[in-house]
Amino acid sequence: MRRGLLLVIPAILLAAASTYPQPTATKVVSRPVQPLVDYSPLPALQQEIRPVVTPPAPVPRVVLGAQTTRPLVALTFDLDMTPDMAAAARAGFKWINTDGTSYLESMNIHATLFMTGMWAEVYPAEARRLARNPNLEIGNHSYSHPAFHSPCYQLAAVGRAAQLGQVQRAQQTIERVTGLTPKFFRFPGGCYDRAALDTVHAAGLIPVQWNVNSIDAFNPNPRQIASTVINGVEPGSIVVMHLMRGNAPSSAAALRLIIPALQRRGYEFVTVSELLAAGPAIQPTDPREVVEAAQPRPPPAPPPHWCGWVTGQKGRVYICR
Fold first, then answer.
1. Cα(319)–Cα(321) distance, rounded to whole angstroms?
2. Is 319 left (phi over 0), alpha (psi -120 to 50) or beta?
3. pLDDT at residue 230 in the model
4. Most buried residue, 36, 92, 117, 133, by most Cβ within 10 Å?
5. Residue 10: strand, helix, or coil
6. Distance separating alpha carbons of residues 155 and 135, to the nearest angstrom
């Protein structure tokens, strides 16, 4: 009896399982693989990704200033040294105007110094110190300051081959002493002709002149120098001055008048490189490409403020004050 019952129970369970709904089998259908097609890029897309090449700006023939409306001005200073000046320096005469350089540095003024190679040789420690100042830019002013075209302020002239030697020797000397490589050149006395310009450009340098002459050379009157600069400066101007004791005795005193006055007018002092980054170079319009100069004379003294008759111990005299 018990064995029969055990056989009946599995049969009942199998019957119940057959009545429960079973899951439907899913049929997998495979699709044919499509071949890859290599589409060529559209012409419009090719034009969009084509790089735009901007031609480099032409190298200026001569730089007089920069075309800008921003109140920027570049103070530039010549550090002259001739063989006679070098001999005097070795005998004890000091050509360095440390009063002027100290004032520039104390005021954090950006400026460009055009240094002769001989000046760097005579004052190597000062040349290296100035070159380490990030506010100051060093330019090439020839090796021994001869004229590249005559007449030029009574400077001794040199021939074409010697001119290239002057540029290259100064470049090598300044690099050796300061570790810097000048990219601008200033002609001694500012005198040049077309062949001299070609020589400087062939050496890889850009000639830089000025459009405001301070007339500080051999000028004992700092107020006169300051007035000349302040009245002449416009946005984008380059000013030429000197930092030479003896040859420019009043430059440092004039700077103490020039810099505050221009700052009050909103001017920012920049190097020549910084000035040219703000606008294209102003260049000479004379097709002859010749600059020559005789020894300049300081401007005449200002007229008196008052004139009249005065009675004194020697009677009445007419004086002006």
1. 7
2. beta
3. 97
4. 117
5. helix
6. 31
Q: Domain 65-282 falls in which CATH fold?
A: TIM Barrel (3.20.20)
Cα angle, residue 160 at apex, residues 127 and 82 outer, rounded to 5°: 35
Query: For 260-315, what is each residue's pLDDT tens digit?
Result: 999 999 999 999 999 999 999 999 999 999 999 875 555 555 655 666 667 766 66
Burial pattern 254-279, b for ≥16 Cβ within 10 A else e, equals bbebbbeebeeeebbbbbbebbbebb
On whether the CB atoms of residues 246 and 95 are closer than 8 A, the answer is yes
81-118 b/e (C-beta count within 10 Å ≥ 16 → b): bbeebbeebeeeeebbbeebbebbeeeebbbbbbbbbb
Distance between CA 162 and CA 111 in Å, rounded?
29
**CB–CB of 262/73 below 8 Å?**
yes
Phi/psi at 253 (5° precision): -65, -35
Q: Are strands 315-320 and 307-312 parallel, antiparallel or unpaired?
A: antiparallel
CB atoms within 10 A of CB 67: 12
Contacts of 293 by beta carbon, 8 Å cutoff, 6+ apart:
151, 152, 153, 189, 190, 191
Lookup result for tokens 């102003």: 282
- Return d(Cα 287, Cα 300) in angstroms, integer: 32
Return the amino acid letter for 202.
Answer: A
Nearest to 80, CA basis, from 211, 239, 188, 198? 188
